[in-house]
Amino acid sequence: MAEQMNTSVRADNGKEGRAERPSERSRRVAEARASFRAIRLPYPRQDELVAALDELRLTGQLSKGQTQGGVRLIANTGSGKTVGAERFKAYVEAADEHAPGSQPVVIATVDGSGTTRSIPASILKAMGVPRPEHGAEPVLWMRAFDALERYETQLLIIDEFNRAARRPTMSSAIATALRDVMDRGIVPMAFLATEEARDVFKRSPDLAGRLDAPVTMEPLDWLVEEDRELFLGFVSGLDGELVDRGILRLSSGLAEEALARLLCEASNGNLRQLCRVIETALAAAVRRDDAAIGREDLADAVDDWSIANHCIAYNPFRAK
């Protein structure tokens, strides 16, 4: 939405009555955005992922040298897969039971090339090994195996595994290569992906057959009581953090049911979309130096972010 370009006057900037410079306002908004993005809230669906990953890791520790297992989580973009994996990594690394310099959990993100060579290179890059793309594919795999053993890795998480589906001629070869990692007993593996990856698993029954029951992380449905309670708890936590961190001065009432229902609908029950809507509304409120996010801020945010990014075709806040 267009905003007025008038320069505001702030009385709390240490220079009573001095007009706030545009650069100062920009810094306030940037700081508010950065503080908002630093918020980390507990989320039960992520707890289920963390538990599944830890069970897989511990099972691997008790069966070293044997064929290792794996697990997959297929969910929409923005459902919290990667954040959950990062939470798990931090949780494991915080435990005082690992040798200095070890990397008990490695999260390797598949790059966009979708080649078998890109997988070991992604693993080496995630582990901070110098020149991760140096060498032919067999050499890269040998280097990756050596790094996983040298750094005593207990669980390898392959993020964005759906990218393996972009080149159907390569996806089966990628799945076979990763299956061989488990068959060699090197490390158990977890696969985080969107729906595209289902085709990879269908074409690779040998890999799918080695995996535990899938972990699910579906979008939240306001009409389902459990989902509604999860959503209300999450937005309540965000609202509280905005005040506790000094980003806003007053609660915005985000957990009020009427408002929360519209937020859930506008975000499709997707946490990433929800956070982008709230952050966009937050920026508008901070630009005006308002104490809290208003309903119109949220309505404008749905127009400016959700509809503009084709996440939703209408604005629940403006529906009659």
UniProtKB/TrEMBL annotation:
Residues 1-10 have a biased composition (Polar residues). Coiled coil: none annotated. Residues 1-29 are annotated as: Disordered. InterPro entries: P-loop_NTPase, TniB. Residues 12-29 have a biased composition (Basic and acidic residues). This is TniB protein. It comes from Sphingomonas kaistensis.
